UniProtKB/TrEMBL annotation:
Signal peptide: none annotated. Residues 184-248 are annotated as: Disordered. It comes from Nothobranchius korthausae. It holds the Pfam family RAI16-like. This is Family with sequence similarity 160, member B2. Residues 184-247 have a biased composition (Polar residues). InterPro entries: FHIP. It comes from the Eukaryota.
Length: 285
């Protein structure tokens, strides 16, 4: 009986023992600073990224973002996501990936964006500080001489899946693809840019809303009715089949971009890459 009492006491103590609270934002910032520190301290330009702790740091940052989201309402923006958006971390990652420094960094950036879009529940493609870097990364895919088709097609498929979930983001994703062939097309592209700059979410915000959270909001009360549009108001907000079809057909004529990259990858020598590229095209159909 005495042994049983001791065991019960130990179990009770174990339940009452709490881990020290970890500040997610501090941890997130620390991981990001460690990534940037690698560039400052590394002197060997030929050292591949796999021999640094950058991949691990990026995975930790992603895990923190996903965990933070599970602890709050979907419409809320946590401090870690807010930091990522305010400090333009995604744009910085795009530049590092494009520079391919250290070697293999482009692959790590593709993986990060892929998992960010697939694991996060928030409609991130509505945010200009997300869809702009996504556009830039898309334009780096399927280029001659690149040997990361697997990661490229996984990233592109993730983008297509999110567009399928939130059809109104299609115009934002294809914005850079609508290059003008004439004056009318140029004006149309400018209008599409303006529509994408104002995220289509219709959540009302107070004046105390943070700058990042306001990216989810509709246009401000001071704006004119002609510019203050919501998904259900702005000419079906690019969700109507006619508009989406127009965007897709126009974008398909341009080198670079989502459709072009997917079409290029359907010609890959790897069957798995061809299959995923075809799946992406079907999601946009």
């Amino acid at each position: 009986m005495e042994t049983f009492s001791r065991l019960s006491s130990l179990l009770l103590q174990a339940l009452e023992t709490r881990e020290p609270t970890v500040d997610l934002l501090d941890s997130f910032i620390d991981h990001w600073r460690s990534v940037t520190t690698c560039y400052i301290q590394t002197s060997d330009d030929s050292c591949p990224v796999s021999q640094t702790d950058i991949p691990w740091r990026l995975r930790q940052m992603l895990d923190i973002l996903v965990y933070e989201e599970t602890q709050q309402a979907v419409e809320d923006t946590g401090p870690c996501l807010e930091y990522l958006l305010q400090h333009k971390l995604l744009e910085t990652l795009c530049m590092l990936g494009k520079a391919q420094y250290p070697p293999g960094m482009f692959q790590q950036v593709l993986l990060f964006f892929n998992k960010l879009l697939t694991r996060m529940q928030k409609p991130l493609l509505e945010l200009i500080r997300v869809y702009r870097p996504v556009q830039r990364l898309i334009n780096l895919c399927a280029l001659p001489g690149c040997h990361v088709e697997k990661e490229e097609v996984q990233f592109l498929l993730a983008v297509c899946s999110r567009v399928k979930q939130d059809p109104h983001t299609l115009r934002c994703v294809l914005e850079l693809l609508e290059q003008p062939a004439g004056l009318n097309q140029s004006q149309h592209s400018t209008q599409a840019s303006n529509q994408c700059t104002d995220p289509p979410c219709s959540h009302s915000q107070t004046s105390a809303t943070s700058p990042v959270q306001s990216e989810y909001s509709a246009t401000s009360p001071g704006q004119s009715e002609s510019s203050a549009t919501s998904p259900g108001q702005s000419e079906s907000s690019a969700t109507s089949p006619g508009q989406s079809e127009s965007c897709v057909s126009g974008a398909a004529l341009t080198d670079g971009g989502l459709l072009w990259a997917l079409l290029q990858l359907t010609k890959s020598q790897r069957a798995s890459v061809r299959q995923k590229a075809s799946e992406g095209l079907l999601l946009l159909a």
